[in-house]
């Protein structure tokens, strides 16, 4: 087990390095001069020049890349130009928001998506199957921010059940307001994932339910519930876990838009603000963290994969 | 086995018969038909619709601001008194062209990169690691970054989304190439002295077309959704020229008082994405039953 984790982590090192280089390149693609941004609109050319030298922006590009790497190796992600705090502390401040949103959204997505998928596969070609697949298809076809606005009109403006925007921290505001501030965004965010997961679960279950061991289980009198739930789903789980990484990356991507609509001060909003404000170190740092998170999530998924299906090995 | 026979058969007839079989299966596939009709209607609306209403999509009229749907404004009017129906029809031109361009560009580059990695095995690790690294960034974030770098216009959205989707396409093409290169007909071609270019063009590319086309219909759907999301975030085609995304973005501030401004373009986006997804499902069932959904 430990060996498998080590092997998989080693394999991800080249990708992590490339992710870092790409984050750096992306920042240098952005038009405009960071030194001008920091110095402000009415700074003298001399002041701009001084700041440029302080930031090391007058050096050749490969030297900047090298020094950025050296800083990264020491855990220095740099400081935001606009926020007056380091990238790491800015991220740490907003991480609970994004994690809360993601956790709540997953708590909605997993049971619903999997149940719908199993139902559709079990009642194959019936109206239940058609209905579930239609819901799933609508889920992956409707723009999330649009459904978010409609949902706000219905649940916040008309019915007044939940706030239309903003975040209430769990620790200071308590679980009630926290939940109320997140349930609507989390449900909007889940819509796409539920559709995706239900479709994946259905096709995995269809493969499994055709197998001989399912017929054997039925023949020897195992209850239908156990046959489908245990014998069937256990085996379909392997295929479902495979898309776990995709689900999580959809979740990260989707949260960028959803945080924007509901004015949740999470990481997605931080990046978008950074890009709009040309806050180079912030963009570079957060993109890098997003990339790292994604790579590590995939390593975790691969490892869970070996736990669920002992036949899989990473050597 | 049928693959081998078909590819080795010198006659044009067999290939043609196979094409007919695919078409017949598609014609019998319900979700494919529904998707095709949906997409066809939307494309037709985008092409000839604007000529029918005969209204300038950017023409403002102070006196008819925020008119709810009526006979004169079937979809209502916005804060400048512009006709939403006309703007949605014109917006369809822009949004659907963006979707199509992204699908085509991702297809061409994804196929080129995927074939290179799958066929020339020495290059494979380097190419695919780069693709993995690009895929590590959420597609929407990569698109926001590149879109911001290139400036808010339709062409930068196309570039940004293509960069996000090329790696995903390349991975799928590579996977098919890895299977195809082990086929007997490919070895037969090589033994009989065919060059790499000939083999790629004549044997590899045609045989990975199925999964590629399926993937591209899904990318078309994602691209339409992503255009709307990027416009919403302020990195889309700039107003006043309408796209589905920027009509919704403009209507957001008045969503409570004038819900029709953002409702109808959103419906258009959903129907277009739904149509492409249905088309893709049908194509997948017929062309490549084993393919799983990829993003």
Automatic annotation (TrEMBL), chain A:
Q: Transmembrane residues, as ranges?
A: 101-123, 135-158, 178-198, 236-262, 282-308
Task: Give the highest taxon in the source lineage.
Answer: Bacteria
Quote the cellular component terms of the Gene Ontology held in the record: plasma membrane
* Localization in the cell: Cell membrane
Q: Which GO terms describe its molecular function?
A: dipeptide transmembrane transporter activity
Say if the entry is tagged with keyword Cell membrane: yes
**Keywords in UniProt for this one?**
Cell membrane, Membrane, Transmembrane, Transmembrane helix, Transport
What sections of the sequence does the record tag as coiled-coil? none
Signal peptide (from-to): none
Q: How does it sit in the membrane?
A: Multi-pass membrane protein
Please state every residue range assigned to the domain named ABC transmembrane type-1: 95-305
Q: Does the keyword Transmembrane helix feature in the UniProt annotation?
A: yes
Name the major location: membrane
Instruction: One Pfam family, please name it.
Output: BPD_transp_1
For this protein, the record's CDD domains field holds: TM_PBP2 (cd06261)
The UniProt similarity line reads:
Belongs to the binding-protein-dependent transport system permease family.
| UniProt protein name | Peptide ABC transporter
UniProtKB/TrEMBL annotation, chain B:
Q: Carries keyword Iron?
A: no
Q: Which domain of life is it from?
A: Bacteria
The record's GO CC annotations read: plasma membrane
Q: Where are the transmembrane segments?
A: 34-55, 94-120, 140-166, 212-235, 258-280
Establish whether keyword Transmembrane is in the entry: yes
Per its UniProt record, what InterPro entries does this chain match?
BP-dependent_transpt_permease, MetI-like, MetI-like_sf, OppC_N
Task: Provide the ABC transmembrane type-1 domain boundaries.
Answer: 96-280
Where in or outside the cell it occurs: the entry states: Cell membrane
Entry's Gene Ontology BP terms: peptide transport; protein transport; transmembrane transport
Keyword vocabulary terms for this entry: Cell membrane, Membrane, Peptide transport, Protein transport, Transmembrane, Transmembrane helix, Transport
Report membrane topology.
Multi-pass membrane protein
Write down the Gene3D superfamilies for this protein, in alphabetical order.
Answer: MetI-like
What family, per the record?
Belongs to the binding-protein-dependent transport system permease family.
Q: What is this protein called?
A: Peptide ABC transporter permease
- Its source organism is Bradyrhizobium betae
């Amino acid at each position: 087990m430990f060996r498998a984790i080590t092997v998989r982590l080693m394999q991800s090192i080249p990708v992590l390095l490339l992710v870092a280089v790409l984050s750096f390149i992306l920042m240098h693609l952005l038009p405009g001069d960071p030194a001008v941004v920091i110095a402000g609109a009415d700074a003298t050319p001399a002041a701009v020049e001084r700041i440029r030298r302080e930031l090391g922006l007058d050096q050749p590009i490969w030297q900047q890349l090298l020094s950025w790497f050296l800083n990264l190796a020491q855990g220095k992600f740099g400081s935001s130009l606009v926020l007056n705090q380091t990238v790491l502390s800015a991220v740490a401040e907003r991480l609970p928001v994004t994690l809360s949103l993601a956790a709540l959204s997953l708590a909605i997505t997993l049971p619903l998506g999997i149940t719908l998928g199993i139902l559709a596969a079990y009642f194959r070609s019936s109206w239940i199957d058609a209905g579930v697949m239609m819901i799933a298809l609508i889920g992956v076809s409707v723009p999330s921010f649009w459904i978010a606005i409609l949902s706000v009109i219905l649940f916040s403006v008309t019915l007044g059940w939940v706030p239309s925007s903003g975040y209430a921290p769990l620790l200071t505001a308590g679980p009630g307001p926290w939940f109320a501030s997140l349930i609507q965004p989390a449900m909007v965010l889940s819509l796409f994932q539920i559709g995706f997961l239900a479709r994946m679960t259905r096709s995995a279950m269809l493969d499994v339910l055709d197998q001989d061991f399912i017929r054997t289980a039925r023949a020897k009198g195992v209850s239908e519930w156990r046959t489908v739930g245990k014998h069937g789903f256990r085996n379909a789980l392997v295929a479902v876990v495979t898309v776990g990484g995709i689900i999580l990356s959809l979740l990260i991507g989707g949260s960028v838009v959803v945080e924007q609509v509901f004015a949740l001060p999470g990481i997605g909003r931080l990046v978008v603000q950074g890009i709009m404000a040309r806050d180079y170190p912030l963009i570079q740092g957060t993109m890098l963290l997003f990339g790292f998170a994604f790579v590590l999530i995939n390593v975790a998924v691969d490892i869970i994969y070996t736990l669920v299906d002992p036949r899989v090995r990473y050597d | 086995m049928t693959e081998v026979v078909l590819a080795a058969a010198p006659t044009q007839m067999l290939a043609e018969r196979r094409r007919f079989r695919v078409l017949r299966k598609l014609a019998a596939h319900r979700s494919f038909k529904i998707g095709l009709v949906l997409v066809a209607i939307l494309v037709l609306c985008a092409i000839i619709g604007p000529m029918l209403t005969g209204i300038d999509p950017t023409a403002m009229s102070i006196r008819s601001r925020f008119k709810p749907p009526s006979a004169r404004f079937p979809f209502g009017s916005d804060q400048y008194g512009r006709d939403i129906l006309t703007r949605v029809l014109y917006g369809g031109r822009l949004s659907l062209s963006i979707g199509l361009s992204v699908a085509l560009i991702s297809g061409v580059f994804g196929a080129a990169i995927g074939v290179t990695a799958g066929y020339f095995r020495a290059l494979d690790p380097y190419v695919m690691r780069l693709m993995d690294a690009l895929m590590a960034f959420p597609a929407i974030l990569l698109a926001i970054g590149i879109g911001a770098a290139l400036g808010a216009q339709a062409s930068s959205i196309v570039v940004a989304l293509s960069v996000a989707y090329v790696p995903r396409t390349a991975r799928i093409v590579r996977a098919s190439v890895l299977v195809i290169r082990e086929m007997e007909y490919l070895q037969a071609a090589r033994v009989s002295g065919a060059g790499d270019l000939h083999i790629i063009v004549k044997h590899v590319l045609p045989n990975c077309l199925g999964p590629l086309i399926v993937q591209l219909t899904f990318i078309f759907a994602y691209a339409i959704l992503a255009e709307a999301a990027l416009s919403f975030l302020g990195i889309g085609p700039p107003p006043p020229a309408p796209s589905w995304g920027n009509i919704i973005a403009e209507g957001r501030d008045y969503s409570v008082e004038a819900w029709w401004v953002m409702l109808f373009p959103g419906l258009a986006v959903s129907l277009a994405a739904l149509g492409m997804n249905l088309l893709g499902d049908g194509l997948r069932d017929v062309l490549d039953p084993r393919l799983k959904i990829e993003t």
